[in-house]
Each structure stands twice: as C-alpha cells, then as structure tokens.
Specification:
With 220 residues, this protein is of the alpha+beta class. It has a single domain (18-96, 107-219), classed as Jelly Rolls. It contains 5 helices and 10 strands, in the order βααβααβββαβββββ. A 6-stranded antiparallel β-sheet has the order 1-8-5-10-3-2. It is globular and about 70 Å long. The mean pLDDT is 90. It binds fe (ii) ion. Residues 130, 132, 199, 214 line the site of fe (ii) ion.
C-alpha cells in the first residue's frame, strides 16, 4: 500500500502577491480625474511628485487625497488588502506552529492609505528597480495602455517579453519557484504585494500613454 509518509509542504516564507480586477467605474473615475489634473498647469505643478519617486518617467502626480475621496476605490483597496492579510495569516497558521501571528495580534486589520500617485509613461520611460518605504503593502492598478501596445508586445521575440511590463524580483531561487515574475499591464488589473519586494517597469517604444496608479498602505 502506498504511503505518503505524512509529507506536507511547509511554506511559511513564500511572499504572496494578490491579483484582482477593479470595477470599471473605478478605472473610469481615476482616469477622468487624472486627465483633468494633467490638463491644468497649476494643479499639475502642485501635484508633481517626481522628486519623491524613483521613476524615470514623464509624469508622476500625487493623488493621495483624490484616492481617499473615491468610495468605490477605497472599498476595493480595503477589501483586497484585508483579504490578502487574512490569506497570509492563514498560510502561516496552516503551515507553522502558530496560534497567532506576532505581527498581527495587536492589529485591528484596519487598512490605511499612506500615499497614492498616478504615473504616466511614454515611449522610453522606465522605472528602475526599487521598493516602497514607510508602508507594508504596495499595489498597482493599470489605467491606460498605448493603442499599439499589444502589437509591440507580440513583436518582442526575446526569450521573455518585457515591453512595458512590471517585473517583481525575489532573488532566492528554489526548485519549482521563480525569482523573477513578469506582469503584463492590462487595464483594470490590480496587484498588491509586500512593500519590501523589489520591482521595476520596462520601457516601450510606441506612441501613447501607459498609466498606472500606485498606493502604499499600512495596517493599524
Ligand atoms: Fe513601485
């Protein structure tokens, strides 16, 4: 008779990334507000956040107040971040000898929006490898991609397509795992990850704008 020897995979360390799809109304609302800000020189200048961020790109505008004032968006961010928190805690509880996680035992699991901004990238723009400080979660929501992006992506015949992609980097290599994870931008798609995780965005060459929102979040 076959035996499984009581084998189980014990995986308390794997950093998790959660993916979700934002409501269409959230994407439309953010795009409308960002377009409005970028069309006015004064507000555009007042919200310029490029000095605070690592990106080598056309436009980075601080949107923290705007993000906090869009109920559909804050509901979405809170829901996904809470689900991610529970999922991570469950992974620990299932695989380790924990009755509770030290990091979470004094928390109310209240999600706080620390900073949020919108990036517009044009041909040649890029975001070098970086991580986000002063928070525990970071996230991205893709808001616009250039009209000819898909054709440019498909024409990239290198070993791994990277045109306009977000890439996560976790340098520890293990059997069956990746240490690089490439994410192709799709409007409405959303990813949330531990803020310490290194990531970068590769350039594209075509005309048009690649727009994304990023938000740093904490737990109280
Ligand atoms: Fe980032």
């Amino acid at each position: 008779m076959a035996t499984d020897y009581g084998m189980q995979v014990v995986a308390p360390f794997s950093p998790l990334i959660i993916k979700a799809t934002a409501p269409v109304s959230v994407v439309a609302g953010l795009n409308a507000r960002a377009d409005q800000i970028l069309s006015g020189q004064d507000e555009r200048r007042a919200r310029d956040w490029s000095q605070h961020l690592s990106g080598n790109l056309t436009t980075e505008i601080r949107m923290t107040d705007v993000i906090r004032q869009i109920p559909d968006l804050t509901d979405f961010l809170y829901d996904v971040a809470r689900t991610y928190t529970y999922r991570c805690e469950n992974a620990l509880l299932n695989y380790g000898n924990y009755s509770e996680t030290e990091e979470l035992k004094d928390k109310k699991l209240e999600i706080q929006i620390k900073e949020g901004w919108v990036n517009d990238m044009r041909a040649g723009d890029f975001n070098p490898v970086h991580y986000h400080q002063g928070c525990i979660y970071s996230c991205v929501l893709f808001l616009k991609i250039p009209d000819d992006y898909e054709a440019e992506f498909q024409a990239d015949k290198h070993r791994q397509n990277s045109v306009g992609c977000l890439q996560f980097i976790d340098s520890r290599t293990a059997v069956g795992t990746r240490n690089l994870f490439m994410v192709k931008p799709v409007v409405g798609e959303f990813y949330l990850w531990p803020s310490w995780m290194l990531h970068c965005v590769y350039p594209f060459r075509g005309a048009g704008v690649r727009r994304s929102m990023s938000v740093n979040m904490a737990l109280a």
